[in-house]
Write a structure and sequence with these properties.
It is a single chain. By secondary structure, the protein is mostly helical. Helices cover 85% and strands 0% of the residues. Helix 1 (2-29) runs antiparallel to helix 2 (34-54). The protein starts with a helix and ends in a 5-residue tail after the last helix.
């Protein structure tokens, strides 16, 4: 069980860096993409909560709950990326 906790601790440390970068991005892009940046920050917060909750769970249960939150972060990031792409001129 220690290996799973170590993995979750490493994931939480990496997430802290991502959250800091997302916060900077959100402050820069909030006026242009308010709903997308809010959704991204909310999904990152949800992942942080899932990681914290997973620390006391069996490894497979922890992985399943964290995986769902990772998917939410990916979807939110894709939404931000698509919004930005739609506002950028084509480089074709």
């Amino acid at each position: 069980m220690r290996g799973a906790k170590d993995g979750l601790d490493a994931l939480q440390a990496a997430l802290s860096k991502v959250q800091a970068n997302a916060k900077t991005f959100a402050s820069d892009a909030k006026s242009a993409y308010p709903s997308q940046t809010t959704a991204l920050q909310n999904s990152l917060s949800g992942l942080n909560t899932a990681i914290t909750s997973a620390k006391g769970q069996p490894p497979l249960t922890a992985a399943a709950s964290v995986a769902s939150s990772v998917t939410n972060v990916k979807n939110s990031a894709d939404t931000v990326q698509n919004a930005i792409k739609s506002n950028c001129p084509s480089s074709g």
